[in-house]
């Protein structure tokens, strides 16, 4: 994945915010108007949009597309609207808009991880990697910022992605489980509708 500039990241975040604003304030939302502001973003990368309360940074919604199933200009808009409707929370309202910050994560391609438990652990670095686990009909994903912010160890990170997939801990050690790692480039508002900055995680 190529590195995106701060200017490009700012465009992505502003588009995501605009999409959310239109969605919660317009009866007949049409994403095409926002997509036009991202005409240069025809690349296919996985994209996640996260909404946080400000200033507590408590999670308000996070939805995305890990597999780059379409052009970024479309996925950012779709992920932003989906994050505003994250089923884990009540629907996002226009009253919350001035008290929320928006974050966009651009994902690299997925890289398969294999081996025994010790080999798997050696291939993962907290602060660099996100994880996906697939096991039967179950699938779970954790973005790279989650283990870094929670200060998890690698084994804890692996257990938590299993829990995210509604699987027992240690399922990642099973031979039938499929694991992937990925990196992300993250751009976020410093305050609601404020300056956008690139978030760089500290690797451990």
Structural write-up:
It is built from six helices and nine strands. The chain has two domains: 6-108 and 184-199, Hypothetical protein ph0010, domain 1 (Glycoprotein, Type 4 Pilin, 2-Layer Sandwich); 111-182, Hypothetical protein ph0010, domain 2 (Dna Ligase, domain 1, 2-Layer Sandwich). Strand 8 (184-189) and strand 9 form a beta hairpin. Helix 1 (6-25) crosses helix 3 (72-84). The mean pLDDT is 94. Helix content is 29%, strand content 25%. With 204 residues, it is α+β, with helices and mostly antiparallel strands. The radius of gyration is 17 Å and the shape is globular.
Q: CATH class of the largest domain, anyone?
A: Alpha Beta
- Uncertain stretches of 5 or more adjacent residues: none
The proportion of residues forming helix, as a percent range, comes to 25-40%
Helical segment count: 6
Number of domains: 2
Basic shape: globular
In the sheet with the most strands, the strands line up as 2-1-3-8-9
Q: What series of H and E elements makes up the topology?
A: HHEEHEEHEEHHEEE
CATH fold description of the largest domain: Glycoprotein, Type 4 Pilin
| Helix-strand makeup class | alpha+beta
Number of strands: 9
CATH superfamily of the largest domain: Hypothetical protein ph0010, domain 1
Q: How many whole angstroms does the radius of gyration measure? A: 17 Å
Tell me about the biggest sheet?
Answer: 5 strands, antiparallel
The CATH architecture of the largest domain is 2-Layer Sandwich
Query: What is the strand content?
Result: 25-35%
Mean pLDDT over all positions: 94
């Amino acid at each position: 994945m190529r590195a995106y500039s701060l200017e490009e990241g700012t465009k992505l975040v502003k588009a995501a915010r605009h999409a959310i604003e239109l969605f919660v304030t317009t009866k007949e939302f049409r994403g095409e108007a926002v997509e036009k502001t991202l005409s240069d973003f025809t690349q296919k990368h996985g994209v996640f949009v996260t909404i946080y309360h400000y200033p507590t940074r408590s999670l308000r919604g996070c939805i995305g597309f890990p597999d780059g199933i379409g052009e970024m200009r479309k996925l950012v808009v779709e992920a932003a609207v989906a994050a505003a409707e994250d089923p884990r929370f009540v629907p996002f309202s226009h009253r919350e808009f001035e008290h929320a910050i928006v974050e966009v994560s651009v994902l690299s391609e997925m890289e398969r991880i294999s081996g025994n438990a010790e080999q798997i652990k050696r291939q993962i670095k907290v602060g660099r990697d996100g994880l996906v686990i697939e096991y039967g009909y179950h699938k779970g994903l954790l973005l790279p910022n989650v283990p870094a912010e929670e200060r998890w160890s690698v084994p804890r990170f692996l257990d938590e992605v299993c829990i995210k997939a509604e699987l027992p801990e240690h399922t990642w050690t099973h031979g039938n489980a499929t694991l992937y790692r990925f990196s992300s480039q993250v751009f976020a508002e410093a305050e609601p509708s404020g300056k956008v900055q690139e978030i760089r995680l500290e690797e451990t």
